[in-house]
Amino acid sequence: QVQLVESGGGLVQPGGSLRLSCSASGFAFSNYFMYWYRQAPGKERELVAHISPGSRDTNYAGSVKGRFTISRVNAKNTVYLQMNNLKLEDTAVYYCKAAGAWGQGTQVTVAS
Predict the structure, then answer these.
(1) Tell me, what DSSP letter sits at residue 32?
(2) Segments of the chain scoring below 50 in pLDDT
(3) What local confidence, expressed as pLDDT, does residue 77 receive?
(4) Degrees (nearest 5) of the Cα angle 25, 95, 81?
(5) Beta carbons of 82 and 90 less than 8 angstroms apart
(6) Cβ distance 38 to 46 under 8 Å?
(7) Which helix (DSSP H) or strand (DSSP E) does residue 5 occupy?
(8) What pLDDT, on a 0 to 100 scale, did the predictor assign at position 58?
(9) Which one of 3, 45, 64, 104 is most buried, by most CB atoms within 10 A?
């Protein structure tokens, strides 16, 4: 079955950086778009970024454009989210999504 496992979350100060990873299995990873979502307390889950199978196309939410970078290594069945210049409002649980499945999420907390 499809499995998505996120890692790399944690506590970081404003202006800091984190890199999230999502390791995938159970489907033909290199054929699928990959998505990062996030959900902050009391808010709806929102799309942060996505990347096409061959990495040619990426798209970002306006709130993270210029600060976050999505990438993938198909040989490793892994998608990444590099997050720079983190802000308090980036605090959320970050989820990976693909092939109709969600990961369990990884907590990112930005606090001084």
Answers:
(1) S
(2) none
(3) 98
(4) 85
(5) no
(6) yes
(7) strand 3-7
(8) 98
(9) 64
